[in-house]
Structure formats: C-alpha cells, structure tokens
Amino acid sequence: GQQVMQIPQYQHVQEGEDFTTYCNSSTTLSNIQWYKQRPGGHPVFLIQLVKSGEVKKQKRLTFQFGEAKKNSSLHITATQTTDVGTYFCAGTRGSTLGRLYFGRGTQLTVWP
Amino acid sequence: DTGVSQDPRHKITKRGQNVTFRCDPISEHNRLYWYRQTLGQGPEFLTYFQNEAQLEKSRLLSDRFSAERPKGSFSTLEIQRTEQGDSAMYLCASSSTGTGPYGYTFGSGTRLTVV
Predict the structure, then answer these.
(1) Which of A23, A30, A29, A11 lies closest to A88, judged by CA?
(2) Binning pLDDT at 50, 70 and 90, where does residue A1 land?
C-alpha cells in the first residue's frame, strides 16, 4: 500500500487559478521529491527537498518541506494549460537515494 | 546517451506465459530501479540495484518475479507464469549516488497486458 498520502486525488481549475497539492507521511522522510507525469507519459523529476522547513521555487511552482519532515506541498501560481498532468510526491527513508515511496498523485486539469 | 531506454514498449501475452523486459539506464548512473504503475496509482516499488548488487526487493514481489543486472549496466525483469493481475506499466529508472539534488530518471515504460 501507499506509504505516502497525497491529496486531493483530482483538481480541476480554470487557467489562471492557483493549485496546491499536499503530501503527508506517517514517518519522517530523509527527503521529498516531486515528479510530473503528463498523460501517456512517464514521471519526470521536478525537484528534491532535503532540509526541514525548506522552501524552493521554480518559476510559478513553490515547493515546501515541513518542519518535521513528514509533509510537503506543491503550489502552482496562475496555472497554464501546460501544467496539465499528475503530480506525485515521493519520499525516501534512511538513505537519500534509495527506494522512493510514491504518493498516489494529484491529477490536475486546467480549463482554458 | 539520451536517457533510460526500455524494451519493448508494449507486450501482450497470454496468461501463464513468461515475459522478460529490458532496461538500459543512463550510462553514468550506478543505481537502477524497477517500479510498477497501474491506472490512477503512483509507481509501486519492485526492486533496485546498485551496480550489479540487488540491494532491496519489495515484499509484494512474488517469486514469479526476478530481476538481474549482471554487469552493472542493463537490467532485465522477468515475470514467470503471468497472471491477469500483472497487467501494468513497468517502469525502470536510474540515478546517481553522487552529490547533488538528483532524482530518478524514468524510462518510458513497458506496458504489459495479460489476456
């Protein structure tokens, strides 16, 4: 079963609206990674967060790692149609480069 | 090197048959991972290698599944006596153990359909 919980499962927004997906683990994670999977595609690495309370930005995307290293969020400002896809969080326990535990993903649909 | 390659892209097999998939990772990556993904789910871990050593194998992996990475380069995943429940996308990924914020690089996957 899934070791990492992710909500919501689906999100439909109009272009220009903001979007947030949340990730939660019952155990402390060594790091959290975020991936994007376009329809029919494979997961593509977006970013890795390692430090407690870390915040990173990539253009319109903001990633946060919780103080307890058990939760994380991805926020997209002013969504565009190119943001469509499923966003997965994934964490490791112990080694930072070992087995990744993936969340179920949030499927984002953006209406033009 | 253009990324992680998987072969075949699609495989349709009859229940009870054996299938084998191949993965060629990025050449400088020493870690290789196999995941399985079904519709609406996140990738589910199967096993991973560092060089030729298989470091971890999921408890969910029955003895019908076996993976090898004989020379620390490409890897194969074999499923014996396939069942309909094995139908899924099988994803291979590779990564480096060097320093830096490296994530996995995934291949395009092998979609298995068991009929």
Answers:
(1) A23
(2) very low
